[in-house]
Amino acid sequence: MAHWLLEVVALVILIALIYRPLSRLVVTALDGHAVRVRAELDAAKHLREEAQSLLANYQRQRVSGEDQARTIVEHAKLETERQVERHRAELEAALKRRTEQVMGRIAQEEARAVQELRAYAATLAIRTTERLLRERVDGAHAQALLDGAIEQVGRKLS
User: C-alpha angle 45/54/47, rounded to 5°?
Assistant: First the structure.
């Protein structure tokens, strides 16, 4: 039994001798690991804050971009409406001018046709009157009637 006790005492002495340097080594390793973990946590925290800052910045830019896009679209709509109205007004004015030109030409042609018809009617009346007078009235009397008829037709045509 003494031998057993001797082994236990030797084991306790060995553990006491190994414990102090081993505990320092373990504590140093754990402290180093804790420092690395703390550094990684600090780096992760810094990266997270940076990511949040970038995210907030990008969200502000997105909102600003959406506002700008909305403004551009509204401006484009207004400009399109303005252009459509301008083109519509120009088209209406052009159609009105064309209509007036056509109506003027029609009036001119109508006046010319009436003038030609009057001239033809006058010529026909003169010829008919002349022929009737030759057939029914003698020389001097016929010439007087013919002159009066020509004068009357001339006044009516004027």
Answer: 20
DSSP-assigned letters across all residues of 40-61: HHHHHHHHHHHHHHHHHHHHHH
Residue boundaries of the structural domains of the chain: 2-112
- The string of pLDDT tens digits covering residues 55-65 is 999 999 999 99
Which residues have C-beta within 8 Å of that of residue 119, sequence separation ≥ 6?
157
* Phi (first) and psi of residue 137, to 5 degrees: -120, 145
What pTM, to 2 d.p., does this model score? Answer: 0.43
- The residue to which tokens 């030759």 are assigned: 134
pLDDT average, residue stretch 109-122: 89
| Opening angle at CA 15, ends 7 and 35, nearest 5 | 165
Contacts of 142 (CB under 8 A, 6+ apart): 133, 134
Gap between the Cα atoms of 149 and 155, Å rounded: 10
Q: How far apart are CA 26 and CA 89, in angstroms?
A: 92
Distances, alpha carbon 104 to alpha carbons 59, 60, 92, 100, in Å:
66, 65, 18, 6
